[in-house]
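ok here's the first one, seq then struct tokens
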Amino acid sequence: MATDIDLHVGKRLRWRRRLLGLTQQELASQVGVRFQQIQKYECGANRVTSGRLYDLSRALNVKVQYFFDGLEALENDVTAANDSEALEGDILSQKETLELVRAYYRLEERPRRRLLELAKSLESTSSDVA
């Protein structure tokens, strides 16, 4: 049975893999497992051993600690519902969010700033309507 920690590590693994644009198969081949094992890690069905966590951190170009970042909030039972700026669900794990972030950083600096200004202006417009 998956613990909250297993689920957290799996979410962080999935988020980083998607951010880098890797498939489960590509990541699996880098660490020497089958893609089904990556699926099980990501959903928390299988625990990640320390050695495998090290391999994953190297393949994803992060420190091992990355997978545990944010656990303090989990341990303190801080929920997103208490956060006034929280959005529904885990927005960072959504495919659309990752595609948007990738496209944003492919832009040059000036268009990025202009896009950010546009998004902020649209946000204030939509809150005025509500």
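and now the second one, same deal
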Amino acid sequence: MQWTVVIPLKPLERAKSRLAPAAGDGLRPALALAFAQDTVAATVACPSVRDVVVVTDDVRAGRELTALGAHVVPDAPGDGLNAALAHAALQVRSRRPEAPVAALNADLPALRPRELARVLDAAAPFPRAFLPDAAGIGTTLLTAGSGTELDPQFGGPSRARHRDSGAVELDDLDDLGYAGSVRQDVDTGDDLRAALALGVGPHTAAAAAGLLIPD
């Protein structure tokens, strides 16, 4: 199965606000862009991905992510993360009604294409499926197969909301040893340390070079 992956990204000046204590407001937008660049680059390189759609109104991010192979669409609803994802999914299916669609966080700087492929392949048998984040509270990936509405419930304790909405939780992938990079999103300094330990992509490595993250 070949997926269209939809990735939402806030305007960089507002993105990753919880990283400010670790990185400061001067570096935070650059880190947010670097996370998105490494996420998009890995997703474009994933063998189970047909194409990548980024939803953002940030001009600089749109330019940089287009250069990596993403198709950028504006956040026309302007009504938050889930509205942006639903809008992008509708855009995709207006062109290809039967397309399987996956929503993926933009802050997965350690993402590995083969790990993403294995997670997407594990999701393929189910109408809707999701992967919880490393903290076990949120969600990093939500999938909807052909003919199924995405119905995103991201934000805060979204793991419970996605489960309650009927999506199947892909909860045994870490036991198989291949979901770590797909689960490790970055909101805080601790998250960034964990991602760096996994091994981040080149954009994040460059943006975080020399950064001292306080304990």
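notes on #2: The helical segments are 20-44, 59-67, 81-95, 113-123, 158-164, 180-183, 189-198, 202-208. The chain is about 40% helix and 15% strand.
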